[in-house]
Hints:
The chain is an all-beta fold. 0% of the residues lie in helices and 33% in strands. It has no helices and nine strands. The strands form four sheets. The chain has a three-stranded antiparallel beta sheet with strand order 3-4-5, with no helix packed on it. It has a two-stranded antiparallel ribbon with strand order 1-2.
Amino acid sequence: xxxxxxxxxxxxxxxxxxxxxxxxxxxxxxxxxxxxxxxxxxxxxxxxxxxxxxxxxxxxxxxxxxxxxxxxxxxxxxxxxxxxxxxxxxxxxxxxxxxxx
Length: 101
């Protein structure tokens, strides 16, 4: 049996496990576009993609050789898809086709 208690804003799970038991905690972590504070002028018109505590980035090396990072456009209504990857620790990849000019 699992007992949960809220303590100082944290959910505490109280349970006694034996070697044959395990629990899986599945938390929703939708990907979302984040923008910097508008007072940070050097970051205007730039976005970051966050999923839970992970920050994802797109760099020039991720693009085809004939494309430039300054020509990448990410629509505000973009819905990113989560997929399995070969990265360690179960890190997922995010994907969706953007517009490259």
